[in-house]
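Holo prediction. Input below; ligand is GCB.
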Amino acid sequence: MANKLLLFALLLAFAPSLNAQQTDLITNIEGRNTTSLNGQWQVIIDPYESGYYDYRYQPSNNGFFKNAKPRTKSELIEYDFDSSGSLQVPGDWNTQTDQLFFYEGTVWYKKSFDFQRKPNTRLFVYFGAANYFADVYLNGQKIGQHEGGFTPFNFEITNLVRDTGNFLIVKVDNKRRRDAVPTLMTDWWNYGGLTRDVKLIETPTTFVHDYLIQLQKGSRNRISGYVKLTGEKLNQTVTVRIPEAGISKSFATDAHGFAAIDFNADLKLWSPENPKLYDVMIEAETDQVRDQIGFRSIETRGTEILLNGRPIFLRGVCIHEEAPLRGGRAYSREDARTLLGWAKELGANFVRLAHYPHNEFMIREADRLGIMVWSEIPVYWTIQWENPATLENARNQLSEVIARDKNRAAVVVWSVANETPLSDARLLFLKNLISYARSLDPGRLLSAAMERHYINDTTQMIDDPLGEYLDVLGCNEYVGWYDGLPEKADRLEWRSKYQKPLVMSEFGGDALYGNHGDALTRWTEEYQESIYQHQIEMLKKISFLRGTSPWILMDFRSPRRPLPRIQDYWNRKGLVSNRGERKKAFYVLQTWYRELANTR
Ligand code: GCB
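Structure of the complex:
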């Protein structure tokens, strides 16, 4: 009996992480032959999940995914997608209708489409993201499920798709769960739905599934990585061409379709001053993919961060994936351009994309604009450190964002956690993520927003044991907001146990745009301005500081912020309001960043 129980507990522990039907992520969607499924999708709001469970709370064989219609006038069917409402995809559901503003639960999405698949092709359905849990069905059959609200996934539908009358149905559930990643408590809005692009990807029967084409760690003239084919003809010759650099190198793939690539290359390196991207062609016998790739080295030496071998200071700002001006989840290239444009105006060469992987547009635009990126997974606050399924889930989200963005020069840091409380279990969990990230992508720096503490009234100590395993130390501090008044920063000294670079990954305070008063009156622009003034003087004195990303570029929605007339469910720590107005602190930071740009 005890054994049975143990087995059951183990099964239960691993159940939510089963991704059995999921195809490995296809790299570089922009370079593929795709058909958009964006637009209006029919939806059914299903708070009791009666489209999934029967009245005994057992999964039903006859759920809404069947898209049934009464065949006779007597037949009883209690749902109908086609006369229910519709929602725009991509998009969160919360900001599309008042009815769903605070909703956390299940919404069923349905899209009909025709598709004439050409002979000798394969077809995949690709989701940029679905928050949080997705069950996906095509023509009444389950094709897969996915957990995690901010990373892409795809399923093969080659043998299921019909020329006409396909119906793709997705049950999206954004209920928060204690064991999930993130867990129950966050400081951002739980926007639900098909929040990013949905596409069909058509490929040859054997195709270039994945590749890593980046500079080898520590080198500025040697490219190393791999190309991976999927399909029946796995032994092929693949050629990597970078015409502008006069490169054409061929490799033979092995019986698994895998070829390690490794060659010298004389390249103009990517940097914020010159964000050079090369056209790169990956040509197999049966498939070709084109990408735009930048090449740069990133490493640390003592307390320095070196970009292309030269010390650099990361002049950054944090950003949530909140749509500028319109509100709701950001989802478009225009959203990315606006947000990154404001960061540039601020004088930034770096952004921390908090607290989860943002959409691919952000990374692609950062690549083009020359903005370095800190990319993060939602291991936030009080995750269940001892739950193996939670770890598996975090690992999966990490592997998906690395799979998607590993060829983007802009991404310089993978961050595995934010403000997680010290414990042995937490350290084990995060060490596991760090070594996993290094195994998937040896080239980038690893960081996390760690814990730090006072050793006396005026000394902050960084000695979180996690620091030993990171390349870059991250610290969030709110001196002047949650921790004393702004002038407290004047007396503070920072110490670190580690000879490593520090990025002050958060600081700041709330101000309602247009709310004025003296520098000691909370919620005014003047108070926030004063925080930045005192902070900057303090930061200048930290000898091992190599970057800053204050909290945050723009006001963002949070259910934890109910104060009427000031917050109204917005976290007001933005340097820019949700309507795009610059607050006074914006200019304080801009002045410092301009100074730094001229002196470093
Ligand atoms: C933090 C968190 C961030 C919050 C911020 C705040 O430390 O990392 O997610 O939004 O503080 O505004 O309190």
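Residues 1-21 have pLDDT under 50 and may be disordered. That is the main takeaway for now.
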